[in-house]
Specification:
It is an enzyme of class 3 (hydrolase). Belongs to the glycosyl hydrolase 3 family. GO terms for molecular function: hydrolase activity, acting on glycosyl bonds. It holds the Pfam family Glyco_hydro_3. It catalyses: Hydrolysis of terminal, non-reducing beta-D-glucosyl residues with release of beta-D-glucose. The chain is built from 20 helices and 17 strands. The chain is α/β, with parallel strands linked by helices and 629 residues long. Among the domains are: 180 residues, Glycoside hydrolase, family 3, N-terminal domain (TIM Barrel); 193 residues, Glycoside hydrolase family 3 C-terminal domain (Rossmann fold, 3-Layer(aba) Sandwich). The strands form 4 sheets. It has a 6-stranded mixed β-sheet with strand order 12-17-16-15-13-14, with helices on both faces. A 5-stranded parallel β-sheet has the order 4-3-2-1-11. Strands 5-7-10 form a 3-stranded parallel β-sheet. Helix 3 crosses helix 14 and helix 18 packs across helix 20. The longest helix is centred in the N-terminal third of the chain and has 18 residues. The relative contact order is 0.13. The chain binds alpha-D-glucopyranose.
Length: 629
């Protein structure tokens, strides 16, 4: 039998700490739950449905509506969250404790959680954030390749293992909900979120929903480090006209179902615990207000029984700016949204939605359905039994094992697109110049959603730059770093130019005017090409860029995508410690005016979907890309 309900339980902590907690409760602190000592909902031996029924029978309408709020941490401290009985807290990109250390995250999380479990009902909160390529808000955490690189690797088990490692680093800090994986199907690479997609056809995003299993376990809560995963953004965020983030997907239902729905079906079949609604619209209807898609398709047709969560202030944006109105709440909740993510005004949310229920414009049944879904995930996660950070795991945050896994993923994601024999480079002898703005910049190689929302330049977190990786794997070669290729001459046996994009996220990355290399990169590449020294280009970017007019001057081209903190994985492939095995998860256009360009659309790009060379000439040709139904 589990210990009595009056003892605060710590997630996998030492018995001493738990005993200490018990002593605290006995020595003067009021009993944790003023109500009956052991109400049925606190009995972990009971069926979850029974626990939910019992708990809901004890909740007022305000208690229930409070559970439907996910508030940004900056808008409510632990006391306010507990006072209003809010269901969840979130950190938007970069919203971190100061100092931004794993220990400080665990302290912050436990502070919210302790206040929540000490309320009369003792309902723990969910704490969500975008751990989209590792626990990337936390400085020092392992940063894995962004999804487009994992799509190039195309290995479901690798993605599962990454999810598992990410969940461990999250559990160490307490955080129990990630808004990942994005299972969007990116159809127009001008979209600023292309790198968050596993690929341009439904096949790769569907196969790589193995991330859900990595994050949650085979069954949510089946291990102490199980965290709630989120399939996002439902539905059609990658289909908008012109690749405009939060734009309008003007496509028929047959295309929406054939291309964009399959990854969500797969995620639901894997038991994903939450689905996030897209800011975008489908044929002019905001997804956040689309009852057909949310309730009839997702909940009823696909049988999704988890939490439907809005995007950040997404309900408020139904009618215009981000501030919700009563009409917004009515539209979003009646469409089927269960948890509403908001930047502020949690008190107003509760009073506005209560009025909608009192006036009969939102049914009690809809509220009860939402709250049942939310409480069910909290029970399944084991939060009532083990609500706090698992500090025994802190040593694994950014630890060697996870960094080695990340380096393995970087190797697997490299796509070799051109090679006249210059690759693999010999690791011994002579001089090699390493140039380009992305050669020695952990921030650039990690991309957006890294420590901050938009990411940044320089040593934004701990890791190994591509340049440092080259020095590590080619110790017998003199490596000269010149960002702009200054001084290149025939004393060098080769030049490696690491170019591409600087970090961005969401609409900040929209490029409606085209996907081109910046002037600095073009000048560096010209200088190197003019020298006559063999040039290997490493493209660090979130998507294909225009290279057709320059690639003829290059001896090798590798798409490295956004590798994250372990840049040495790129060097492993350049110097032949590993052969390139990656394949393009998106068609590489000749020119941006071909966008959107996708497999099977009749256009001829520079490199097709599925392209990828190896060092072994005998490697079979790229597999026939799957034909869309
Ligand atoms: C953002 C994104 C979404 C993210 C959420 C919380 O605007 O659209 O992907 O999960 O807000 O940060």
């Amino acid at each position: 039998m589990p210990p009595s309900s009056s003892v605060l339980r710590f997630r996998r902590t030492t018995p001493m700490a738990a005993a200490g907690a018990a002593a605290l409760l006995v020595l003067g602190s009021t009993p944790v739950h003023a109500q009956e000592a052991d109400p049925p909902y606190r009995d972990s031996m009971r069926a979850v449905d029974d626990r939910v029924d019992d708990l809901m029978s004890r909740m007022s309408l305000d208690d229930k509506i409070g559970q439907m709020v996910q508030i940004e941490r900056g808008a409510a401290d632990a006391g306010e969250v507990a006072e209003h009985g809010l269901g969840a807290v979130l950190s938007t990109g970069g919203s971190a404790p100061d100092p931004n250390t794993p220990e400080a995250w665990a302290d912050m999380y436990d502070g919210y959680q302790r206040a929540a479990v000490e309320t009369p009902l003792g309902i723990p909160i969910l704490y969500g954030l975008d751990a989209v390529h590792g626990h990337n808000n936390v400085r020092g955490a392992t940063i894995f390749p962004h999804n487009i690189g994992l799509g190039a690797a195309g290995d479901p088990d690798l993605v599962r293992r990454i999810g598992e490692a990410t969940a461990v680093e999250m559990a160490a800090t307490g955080v129990d909900w990630t808004f990942a994986p994005c299972v969007c199907v990116a159809r127009d690479d001008r979209w600023g979120r292309t790198y968050e997609s596993f690929g341009e056809t439904p096949e790769l995003p569907s196969e790589l929903t193995s991330a859900v299993t990595g994050l949650q376990g085979e069954k949510l809560g089946d291990r102490p480090t199980s965290v709630l995963a989120t399939a996002k953004h439902y539905l059609g965020d990658g289909a908008t006209e012109g690749g405009l983030d939060r734009g309008d997907a003007v496509i028929d239902e047959e295309e929406l179902r054939a291309i964009h729905l399959p990854p969500f079906r797969e995620a639901v079949e894997r038991g994903v615990g939450s689905v996030m609604i897209s800011y975008s619209s489908w044929n002019g209807t905001k997804a956040h207000a689309d009852r057909y898609l949310i309730t009839e398709v997702l909940k009823e047709e696909l049988g999704f029984s988890g939490i439907v969560v809005s995007d950040y202030d997404g309900v408020g944006r139904i009618s215009g700016d981000r501030n919700f109105t009563p009409e917004d709440l009515r539209a979003g909740v009646n469409a089927g949204i269960d948890m509403v993510m908001i930047s502020k005004n949690h008190a107003g949310f509760i009073s506005d939605l209560r009025a909608e229920v009192d006036e009969g414009r939102v049914s009690q049944g809809r509220i009860d359905d939402a709250v049942r879904r939310i409480l069910t995930k909290k029970f399944e996660l084991g939060l009532f039994e083990q609500p706090f950070a698992d500090r025994d795991l802190l040593a694994q945050v950014g630890g060697d094992d996870h960094r080695e896994l990340a380096r393995e993923a970087v190797r697997a994601s490299q796509v070799l697109l051109e090679n006249d024999g210059v690759l693999p480079l010999a690791p011994e002898g002579g001089k090699i110049m390493v140039a380009g703005k992305n050669a020695d910049d952990i921030g650039h190689q990690s991309g957006g959603w890294t420590v901050t929302w938009q990411g940044g330049s320089g040593d934004t977190t701990e890791g190994t730059s591509i340049l440092d990786g080259i020095r590590e794997v080619a110790p017998g070669t003199e490596i000269v770093h010149e960002r702009e290729g200054e001084g290149i001459d025939d004393s060098y046996r080769a030049a490696i130019a690491v170019v591409g994009e600087t970090p961005y996220a969401e609409y900040e990355g929209d490029r409606p005017d085209g996907l081109v290399l910046d002037d600095e990169d073009r000048a560096t590449l010209s200088r190197l090409a003019d020298s006559g020294v063999p040039v290997v280009v490493v493209m660090v970017s979130g998507r294909p860029l225009e290279v057709a007019d320059m690639v003829g001057d290059w001896n090798g081209l590798v798409a490295a995508w956004l590798p994250g903190s372990e840049g040495a994985g790129v060097a492993d492939v350049l110097f032949g410690r590993s052969a390139p095995t990656g394949r393009l998860p998106v068609t590489w256009m000749r020119t941006s005016d071909q966008q959107p360009i996708n497999e099977g659309d009749g256009q001829e790009g520079l490199y097709p979907y599925g392209a990828g060379l190896s060092y072994d000439a005998a490697r079979p040709a790229a597999p026939e890309a799957p034909q869309l139904p």
